[in-house]
Amino acid sequence: MSKQLVGKILAILGALALMINISFFKEMEWYYIARRISLAVFFVGILLIPIYAPAKNKDQHQ
Fold it and tell me: Would the pLDDT of 62 be above 80?
């Protein structure tokens, strides 16, 4: 499993958990803890997604 795929999965899971948490669990006592964990998972997923490879341009070699 590639790092990019893991990042996409974590970003999607974090975003879904954040939406569910905000929508349904505002009155619960663990709302802020779940929100922080969801945000952390989302941002870690976002950081894992990019691929920094050089662009393949034929004009650079001339």
Answer: no
